[in-house]
Each structure stands twice: as structure tokens, then as C-alpha cells.
Write a structure and sequence with these properties.
Its cofactor is Ca(2+); heme b. Keywords: Calcium, Disulfide bond, Heme, Hydrogen peroxide, Iron, Metal-binding, Oxidoreductase, Peroxidase, Secreted, Signal. By secondary structure, the protein is mainly alpha-helical. Helices cover about 50% and strands about 0% of the residues.
């Protein structure tokens, strides 16, 4: 009788382990995660990103900034998409985040095609890649199967996202906390080639005392555009080809025409200057950027059974 009972217990344990392994295999992150459950997912997302990009090219840098600000806080779990007075979106550092409407549109059509299947975190991951492709950059393989987080805290972005005034050493430290090295940090800064900044982000360089290393013509131009730090003027960081994913951002830095301290500092430091120079080549830059974004998508992804698949990206279920 004891042998039978022992054998039954062992059999039950094996069954539990087998079921557990099966669940993990189904829910594990995968490059073809939606192949059966929602095969049209990527095409729907690309269609919406492209549709909005044609109307407003600024959604491309907006989507890239969204995924950076999402992944650097609690990992890539779409917590930045949740709205509310105490959510990450309410943080001062996230005040000008842009591109939410693209994610919401893609989610709307995905819910029609495949209800409760595609997470908002995965939509953002695909959309950020599509934004780079549409501006002339190189795509990368996106792993999917992330779940959406339920927690979004207003104070956490300030604690995890570097500011425009950050030194290079501070940037290196912040990126290292996310598993990204110094080269990744410099390369990913190249996303600013399609980005804009604002007067308050360069206030440490153009008002008393001014940054004497800034070219006089640039200083004069910026002071005219930004009579006050609170001026709402948008300042393109790549004045020659703002909607093209190219190397002009790095060329500007090399010439001393970087706008923010966190940008120009990359060429002042001996250990980051060679990385900037290495990315003056277009092919090298787009390849390295794709590789760095591939790494970024693995920052603390939320997997089943944790989290949820939101019906609407701005709200918990």
C-alpha cells in the first residue's frame, strides 16, 4: 500500500512539473509569439505607425522616447502608458512624451482582430522599431510575449531616467543599471538625430553663466529662440535632416553643436569621443543602433502569470 501511495505521489509530481513546463513554454518570450494567436499583429502595428507618421513625422521620435522612458522604469512593461495623476505620465520628466495616440490606435484595431491577446508592452516594442525603419534606420528582431504592468508611480521616472543636464559618468551609471554598456549609451543617444529638445533643457548652457565652449553663432541663435527657460520653443537637435535617421547628430557633437549638456559631453570625454567618431559612418551607426535596441527590449520584461493584457493601454483592466 505504501509503495502504491509513493508511486501515486511521484506520478502526481511529474504531472505538475510537466504542466508547469508546458505553461512556461507557451508563455515564454518568443520572436514568433503571435504567429498563431494573432498573425496580423505586426502588420496592424506597422500600418498605424506609418499612418500617423505620414501625418506627423514627430511621432517617430515620440515613440522612441516612449520606449526609453518605459523600459528604464520597472522594465519594458508599458507602465508609462497608464494615465492618472499619480502615474509615470504625470512626472515632470515625462511632461512632453508624445506618440500615445499611435499605440492607442494600434491597440484598438488589435482588439478587433485578436481580443485580449497583444499586450501594450509588445505594441510599444514593435512600434519603436517601426519608427526607426520609417525614418531610414535599420530594424531588429522584436521578442514578444510581455505582459502589461499594473503599477505606475509618478516619482519613479525622476529616479531612473537621466536628465538633459547629466554628466557622461552619470549617463554611464544610469545605463549600466539597465544592463547597457557605455557604447550602448552613446549609440542610443543617436536617437536624438530625429528628436527635439526645449529651452528648459539647455538652460544650463545659454543663460548666465553661459557655456563658453558653445559656438557663438549657436549661442546667439538659441538665446534668440529661448528668451526664457520657460519658452515653449521646440529645438531640433539635427538641423539638417530632422526626420531622417542618420549620423548628423554625431557630426553636430563633433563640431561642438550639440545642444544639451548630456549630448555635447559625449565628445568632451576621452572615453566616449572615439565611440562618437565610430558612429559617423551611416552603416555602422544604424547597425549598432539596432543591436543596442535589441538589447534594450530585454530590460526586465514582465511575463505570465504576472501582469495582464490590457484592453486599453491607458487603463488597467
Amino acid at each position: 500500500m505504501a509503495r502504491i501511495l509513493r508511486a501515486s505521489c511521484i506520478f502526481a509530481l511529474v504531472c505538475v512539473i510537466a504542466i508547469s513546463l508546458s505553461v512556461n513554454q507557451v508563455d515564454a518570450l518568443d520572436y514568433n509569439y503571435y504567429r498563431k494567436s494573432c498573425p496580423q499583429a505586426e502588420s496592424i502595428i506597422f500600418r498605424e505607425v506609418q499612418r500617423y507618421f505620414k501625418k506627423d513625422p514627430t511621432v517617430a521620435p515620440g515613440l522612441l522616447r516612449l520606449i526609453f522612458h518605459d523600459c528604464f522604469v520597472r522594465g519594458c512593461d508599458a507602465s508609462v502608458l497608464l494615465s492618472g495623476r499619480r502615474s509615470e505620465r504625470a512626472s515632470a520628466i515625462n511632461a512632453r512624451l508624445h506618440g500615445f495616440q499611435v499605440i492607442d490606435a494600434a491597440k484598438h484595431y488589435l482588439e478587433d482582430a485578436c481580443p485580449r491577446t497583444v499586450s501594450c508592452a509588445d505594441i510599444l516594442a514593435y512600434a519603436s522599431r517601426d519608427a526607426v525603419v520609417l525614418t531610414g534606420g535599420k530594424g531588429w528582431r522584436v521578442i514578444a510575449g510581455r505582459r502589461d504592468g499594473r503599477i505606475s508611480n509618478k516619482i519613479e521616472p525622476e529616479q531612473n531616467i537621466p536628465t538633459a543636464f547629466a554628466s557622461v559618468n552619470e549617463l554611464v551609471s544610469t545605463f549600466a543599471q539597465q544592463g547597457l554598456n557605455t557604447e550602448d549609451m552613446v549609440v542610443l543617444s543617436g536617437a536624438h538625430t530625429i528628436g527635439v529638445t526645449h529651452c528648459n533643457h539647455i538652460s544650463d548652457r545659454i543663460y548666465n553663466p553661459v557655456d563658453k565652449t558653445m559656438p557663438k553663432d549657436l549661442l546667439k541663435s538659441l538665446q534668440k529662440s529661448c528668451p526664457k527657460a520657460s519658452s515653449p520653443t521646440s529645438l531640433v537637435m539635427d538641423r539638417k535632416s530632422v526626420h531622417k535617421f542618420d549620423t548628423e547628430y554625431f557630426r553636430n557633437i563633433r563640431a561642438g553643436y550639440g545642444l544639451m549638456t548630456s549630448d555635447q559631453g559625449l565628445y568632451r570625454e576621452d572615453f566616449t569621443r572615439p565611440i562618437v567618431d565610430a558612429n559617423l559612418n551611416q552603416r555602422a551607426f544604424v547597425n549598432r543602433f539596432a543591436e543596442a535596441m535589441f538589447k534594450l527590449q530585454f530590460i526586465q520584461p514582465l511575463e505570465a502569470p504576472d501582469g495582464e493584457i490590457r484592453r486599453r493601454c491607458q487603463c488597467r483592466n
